[in-house]
Each structure stands twice: as C-alpha cells, then as structure tokens.
UniProtKB/TrEMBL annotation:
It comes from the Eukaryota. One of its GO terms (biological process) is proteolysis involved in protein catabolic process. The keyword Chaperone applies. SUPFAM superfamilies: P-loop containing nucleoside triphosphate hydrolases. GO terms for cellular component: HslUV protease complex. This is Clp ATPase C-terminal domain-containing protein. Transmembrane segments: none annotated. Residues 362-457 form the Clp ATPase C-terminal domain. One of its GO terms (molecular function) is ATP hydrolysis activity. Keywords: ATP-binding, Chaperone, Nucleotide-binding.
Length: 471
C-alpha cells in the first residue's frame, strides 16, 4: 500500500478520544486554507457514524480532498486514489459518496463499462465532466434556493394578495391585512384564483444539437423564448385553488430571484475545486495480458483507459455551461479485480492513480458491526418499518450475532457478496413477521431470538452449492 505524505497525514493517526487535543495543538501554516472546514479525523468520525468500512480506507479519501484543494498556495500535485477492493459490497462507493455529502461537494458515480473509445458509437469519457457539471448546477441551485426561500415566500404571499384584494394602497390596507390573516390561517385554501401556470416542456431536438457548444445552447434557449412570446417558459392561464396555486407561485418567484444569480459560475467553481468522480468497475475495462497479448479489440476496454489519461492528468473540457478544468477534480477508481490483476491496467493509468487502498473481505465481526453501529442500520430500518403497523420489534443481541454468523457462512460456502448478504438473511427472517404485522394488535411486542434465526435459516444453511462440482 502506498501513501502520500502531506501536512494532513500526521493528523490522521489520532484516535477519537485525543482528537480535539491534537487538532488544537496542530501547528497551522499560512498555506493551509481549505474549502472544507472539517479536519480529516473529523470527517473520518462522521463517516463512521453513517457507514462502517475499514479505517485503512477511511483515512485516505478525506485526506485527498484537502490535498487536492486548489485554494492552497504552493499546493502539491493532486494525487487520485484507485480504491481497489478485491471484494464485493465492502463500502467502496459509500465512503466516497458520504465524504462528498459532508464536504457539500459535487459527486458523480459512473460505470467504466458504459463508455467507449472516441470514434466508436457510445458515450466518451468527456461526458463524465459534463454530467458532473449537471450535478453541480443542481447543487448550486439548491444551495441558492435555500438562501432566498424566505424572500420568495413573502413575494408569493403578496402576489396572491394582489389577486384577492387588488394592488396595495392606503385605502385598501385594512382589507388586505384581513385577507392576509385568513390566508396565513388556511381559511382561503379552497378559494380559486387565476394564475399563469408554466406549460409542460415539449420535447425538442436539443439531444441532436451539440450540447458542448455554449453558443448553440444559448441560441436554442433564445428560440424557445421567442416562441413563448418573450417569456423564459411558456405559460397558460388557469384557475386553481389557493392550496395548489401557492406552490406554483412560490416556484415562479424562486426562478425570478435566481435569475440574478450566476449559477454557472458557482457550479464551475465547485466542480473545479471540490468535484469528486467515482469510477466503478475499472477492472472490467482491462484484459489479462497473458491471454490477449496486452491488446484488446473491445471498444470499451483499452481505448477507454487511454481516453481517461488526459482527463485524470488534468485538461479543459468544453461543456454547455462553460469550460471546466479537471486539474483538481478527485478521481477515485474502484474494482474487485477477481479476474484480472491491477498490473493489467495500462502503465500510464497506473501512474496517474498512484495511491492504492486495498479492502479485505468482511468478517463475522464486521457484519455484526454493520448491523448495530451505523445510524441507519438494517436492524433499525426493520424496527421502524414494523413500527408503522403499531408493532414493537425487538432483536436480541444473540440473534444479531447469529445473523452475522449466517451471513458470513453463506459468503464462504456459496458466493461472497459482502454486506449485501445481510439483506438476504434479514428478509428471510422478517418475511412472516412482516406478513402478519398488519393483523397484530397495536402495542404487540415481537422478539427475534437466536432460535428464531436458526429456525428461519435452517433450510438455507443445509443446502450446499453443488454447482462447483458439476463439470
């Protein structure tokens, strides 16, 4: 395993108890100004609350979000992380997704097998950055919407009052305030008013246009606006109750307020400074060198690896929102590598993904921790689901350990599918309980014991996977 030495590396070693002391004692230098306000140990602790994966993996991913930050002066070269799992369902994707959520960063998960080499029919790898920009645009719109929502709600209320009581004036102030009180109390929700409702978007030929050319996209938007009579979106007059019209008017006011915000500039900055791309199934686009002579005729194999080289190294991609530089985008590649080796990848691609994080298979203790430690664990989901029927569900600790034991045994004897095996075991145990929960009396307590688990799984554990003995 390799690691990248950086000013953050010495902080990663501290444990939870002494974390605050070491963070306060850690010397700050002028160039350590990050976009994220959390230190790497704090990010690790917050991820561990949500998803349980080996600490070996957790200590690397948050570290590189700081290392790849372009806001640092004299920053070292950004190093991307290939997270080679060697096992299935061990938390590779979830770590990157949770880390991006904590940092409020644009995150995109793609499958390496969905792309083809440039010149072949299909999506090229540049589409990764374009899709990431679309995610960043939605994130920027959501962030700015929360900032202006209170103002938009006030404007929407005034707009409805204008329809009910007419424009505000000194003589109509008393009547307007009475309408305002009734509107806020919900007494006028059934009254119908006429408003302009945006028309449903019609299917156009934008997919046939070059979406990478901003001029063509702007021209298409202009033609649509001219066809709508100068409005940004075509609308029609409808008579709706106030309860339905309130939401429509609120959305219209939000769009008007967001017209004065440069969402594209904010989205491009977010992508270039904190974007995260998770490329899954990277092992499926390489072939064993012994069997293929180092070459592959598949359009989704070696050619895609070559196309990924400039993208990971750092280049400028032209999107419909503007040019995006990929120098500081964090690329995380993931694969099981059960049929091929890491060395089967192109040497150039291996050089651009220098940090390797190998995850081992989940043991019985790991499966037990997955059932109990995360906030939204599988056991709590089942308890809340049965609780919706008014039934109290209780899992004994011995039952949880037996579930983890059954899952680990099935992974060894049948097929190792990692933590997803817990879904199979739990659904078999909860099948009859979920079916009968609707007919139980409210307040009934159902206890899942070790004997319950053994009885439900008895038929499964006795079966042997004989397929391996068939020639």
């Amino acid at each position: 395993m390799y690691s990248l030495l950086s000013p953050c590396a010495c902080m990663v070693q501290c444990n939870t108890k002494s974390m605050q002391h070491k963070i306060n004692a850690y010397p700050r230098t002028p160039y350590q100004t990050y976009t994220c306000t959390l230190y790497t140990p704090q990010i690790v602790v917050r991820i561990r609350v949500l998803v349980l994966v080996p600490y070996t993996c957790l200590r690397f991913v948050p570290l590189f979000t700081h290392t790849c930050s372009p806001t640092r002066t004299r920053t070292p070269q950004c190093s991307d992380v290939p997270m080679f799992g060697f096992v299935f369902s061990c938390g590779k994707t979830e770590v990157a997704r949770r880390m991006a959520e904590i940092n409020d960063a644009p995150f995109l998960k793609v499958e390496a097998t969905k792309f083809t080499e440039v010149g072949y029919h299909g999506r090229d790898v540049d589409q990764i950055v374009r899709d990431l920009m679309d995610v960043a645009m939605q994130l920027a719109k959501k962030r700015h919407t929360e900032l202006v929502r209170d103002q938009a709600e006030t404007l929407a209320e005034e707009r409805i009052l204008d329809i009910l009581a007419g424009p505000s004036s000194e003589t109509a102030t008393r009547g307007r305030e009475s309408f305002r009180d009734m509107l806020q109390q919900g007494l006028l929700d059934d009254q119908e008013i006429e408003i302009d409702v945006p028309s449903p978007k019609q299917q156009n030929n934008q997919n046939e246009l070059d979406q990478t050319n901003p001029q063509i996209v702007a021209m298409s938007d202009l033609m649509q606006r001219l066809a709508a009579g100068g409005k940004k979106t075509p609308s029609e007059r409808k008579k709706l109750p106030i309860s339905e019209a309130r939401g429509i008017v609120l959305e219209l006011e939000l769009e008007r307020l967001l017209e004065h915000v440069d969402l594209k500039k904010s989205a491009i900055k977010a992508v270039e400074e904190s974007g995260v791309v998770f490329i899954d199934e990277i092992d499926k686009i390489c072939s064993p060198k012994e069997g293929m002579g180092g070459r592959s005729a598949d359009a989704s194999a070696e050619g895609v690896q070559r196309d990924l080289l400039p993208l990971i190294e750092g280049t400028t991609i032209n999107t419909k929102h503007g040019n995006v530089n990929t120098d500081y985008i964090l690329f995380i590649a993931s694969g099981a590598f059960h049929a091929v080796k890491v060395s089967d990848l192109l040497p150039e691609l291996q050089g651009r993904l220098p940090i390797r994080v190998e995850l081992a298979g989940l043991t019985q203790d790991d499966l037990y921790k997955i059932l109990t430690e995360p906030v939204a664990n599988l056991v709590r989901q089942q308890v809340e689901l049965i609780g919706a029927e008014g039934v109290r569900l209780v899992f004994e600790d011995e039952a949880l350990r037996e579930i983890a034991k059954m899952a680990a045994t099935l992974n060894k004897t049948v097929e190792n599918i990692g933590a997803r095996r817990l879904h199979t075991v739990l659904e078999r145990i909860m099948g009859s309980i979920s079916f009968d929960a609707a007919e139980m009396e409210a307040g009934t307590t159902v206890t899942v014991t070790k004997q319950t688990v053994e009885d439900r799984m008895q038929s499964v554990t006795k079966k042997m996977d004989v397929s391996r003995y068939i020639l």
